């Protein structure tokens, strides 16, 4: 990446933030979108045609990041921010205690899995990547992702006694 490209990115940060705010209507999400946009722009700067304006290219990246974020949020369901709702932390019911114990046991069981299986579980089940995306991240065929994930899920279920 050359210095002129970096300078242009810095100059366009206010415009990118304004556009991100207009899409997301939340400052925290707008900041995330701008960060994602800059990361993608730096990563793929060689795909930008220097004879074309930089703004439309960056806005397209930002809009695609917003679409990706929106889709991911829809599939995750409703999230509740504990900062906005501090009273939800004070509930110490039996179900809450049981959930924390199960989470601790699950984390320990995942830590005992082979690295390949733990990585697949993390990418697919926690991060929400598709099989194809996880395969691309790990540099393995999609079928390998599917078989490792199956073995990881079976091993996790056995370790937790929920076969």
Describe the structure.
GO terms for molecular function: DNA binding; sigma factor activity. Belongs to the sigma-70 factor family. ECF subfamily. The chain has 163 residues and is an all-alpha fold. The chain has two domains: 74 residues, RNA polymerase sigma factor, region 2, helix turn helix motif (Rna Polymerase Sigma Factor, Chain: A); 55 residues, Winged helix-like DNA-binding domain superfamily/Winged helix DNA-binding domain (Arc Repressor Mutant, subunit A), CATH 1.10.10.10. Helices cover 74% and strands 0% of the residues. It is built from seven helices and no strands. The longest helix has 23 residues. The termini are far apart.
Outline the fold blueprint.
Blueprint (H helix, E strand, L loop, with lengths): L2 H22 L2 H17 L10 H23 L17 H19 L2 H12 L4 H8 L3 H19 L3
Helix pairs in contact: 1-2, 1-3, 2-3, 5-7, 6-7
